[in-house]
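Catalogue entry: protein

Sequence with per-residue tokens
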Amino acid sequence: MKQNSEKSPNSELDKSHKFASDKACNKNHENGRTPNLPETKPEQSKRKVVTNYPPFQKGNQHALKHGGYARRMFFSDSIVEDAQALSLKDELFLSRARNLYMAEKIGLWRSQLDDYGGENRDLQDKISAAENAMMRNTARIESIERTLACIRKMCADTDYREVATDKLLREPDRERGELELEGLRLRNEKLRTENENLKKSASDNDNELPQPVAININVVDAKVRNDYSADT
């Protein structure tokens, strides 16, 4: 009981420190200042970053890369991108490369066939199949060449038609311009003629001299007039 009633010096020291800190906090609060606290990083507000700008409308197909074949045959993205970049010239290159590859194989199989004395059925079938494949591939090469020539001709015809259409569209403008110039020329000629007529009429009026007018005045002598009045 005696030990419980006694106060330890540590508890008294803790209370004094706590009282001093509370007093300092209240004083700082009254002065409008915050107590010196350990430095901490301010909390950064999270902002919404729009990665899809401008946002696509509902139902758009801009982000769709794969078509019907790619979705069903599970082509990779690299195959799809390369296939979209290929053209008929690439197909022509591939067909010619196949022909050269088959020709090389045919030469190899024929040399092997000579080693067997020309009595190997398997090699003969391979050579025959390769020759038939070369014939089909050659026909494909001719078809691609013909298609490319037709495309070049179509492009040339399109350019010619565009030039001809542009020329036809400009023809009415040229004719309209010529008609306007002719109208201006006629109006100027008319005004020039009217001015010349006005000048001519003005010069004629200036050249006319005044004609003399005869005025007859009867003068009677005063003596004769008096005699005549006496007789009457």
